[in-house]
Amino acid sequence: MDKKEDSIFDLIEGLTPVAPYQLAEFEQAMNDEVIPAIVRVVEERRLLAVESRNRQLKC
Amino acid sequence: MYTWISLRSSADLSQLASLIPSEYSPGVVAQNLASNLSNAVKAVLIERNYVDKDYRSTYYNFYAKKGQRYRADCVRLHFFDETVAFDENALQLRCSDTRLQDHYFGYMILRPTGIATIGRSILSPDVRKGASGFIITAPHKVHLLGYQLFVEGFPSMDQHIDISVCAHAACWSILRHYSERYNVYREFLTHDITMMAQQFNPGGLVPSKGLQVSHAERIFQEAGTFPVHVARDINKPNDLAFYRQMIAYVESRFPLFAAMHIRGHAVAIVGFEWRTPSTFGLPGLRYAWDEVKSLSVVDDSQLPYLSVSTQAGSTAYCALDIDAFIVALPEKIFYPADAVDRLAPALFKLGSVVGLPKQDETIIRYFITTGSALRRFARDRESEFDPKLLQTIMTLPFAQFVWVVEFATEAQWAVGQIAARAVIDATASLREVMPLWLLHSRTEALVFDRQTVNLNLSTGIRALKLVGMEQTAFTRMEQNLRTTQTK
Predict the structure, then answer these.
(1) ipTM score of the complex?
(2) Is the pTM of this model over 0.80?
(3) Which of B97, B65, B279, B379 has the alpha carbon at shortest distance from B191?
């Protein structure tokens, strides 16, 4: 049986747990706003790149 | 074969016209040099019969096939300061301190093509009038008269007009920089670049009909890079996220292929200059782009390191005319700059945990670096870090590339310091809630366990109380672009 790997946290001194409520606001913002915005803007960039690809450069 | 010209003033460059055959257009070149090189250049050594690999690639594949007879060889001009002298009998270069290297400003090759004769050139930004700020450079080896010299610069050349256009020249410049800077990339000659743009050999003059951005993308892909093409709506020059990521890549030492469709023109962006830091307490969240005064570009119609303002002004074009760019990335940068641009301000939601400055008093800067470079940066500045934070940075199993986001107040920005730093996994997926390795200020850090997929928010994040960093210089991580030292 494989030896269980140490958690990365076991290798760093002084770490303490974080209360979930301290992360809740960030998590909610990521799920509700930031990730949908990222997905949308990446798709918009892809479409803009499609348009840009055919433009001619000559001078 | 060698002729030395001492320059009392730039007007003496006109001697080139009588010393170099007309097919190299020495008169036009002399005027260009007189207008655009600084007075620190006090001597030019003309090296005739120079075999230039880039010109030869076009000679073998194009010029030799023409009815008009073209020379096979080039002329190379070398630029020196006032301390260097040339002994024509001994063919020796002499300088008082025997450090010839320190008095050499680079070279320019002239092609025997009659028009657009400036070929492969590596010039020091220090002697380019108007050049300033930080420039992406690599050391280029030069063999001359048995001396081995190096010049720090970015490659440039005029387009050939008949077989290559501005976009070819921009691709060539970037790829030549890559082959000199990174040993993982091979060297591509001018003719290679024109062929890589097409699926088949178009023959004859077809490349001069122009290039589409997709062709430039293909050139970078063929060269073994992973090109990312970022465009904005050409009718929306106020797409600031576009410019923010543009400067992020340049700060990350990636030269950019930049397109200006309104002008049908392409250049390579190779540097930038910060504006004088504001001390007025400007309100609102700002980004590094807001602090940029100008970009430095390699434009095939000018000598390199042309300074291009971020605002419309008296120059032919400005940074706002750029509406698309290609960044030739290495593999393993999956998390796009657009995602970092959206994620960075969201990190203020963790401000109460970590201790970030007020959002509307902060300047955000983000860039790509390697985990190794981040560790080296921290090691070189051990005194700035709590030893536990240093241990964390040395221990976290970073992927090869990371995005770094720095948060600084206006006052900190002015002195090159920051308040906090986030380290984002460049291999993260778009939909990750916590794509971070580390977020830390001077007093607190959050450490993220990325050893398992689907981070458990209860067990996968730990806090670290930092001590002794409140008063240390908490330095902005510069990326080793070369600082121009105007001479």
Answers:
(1) 0.92
(2) yes
(3) B65
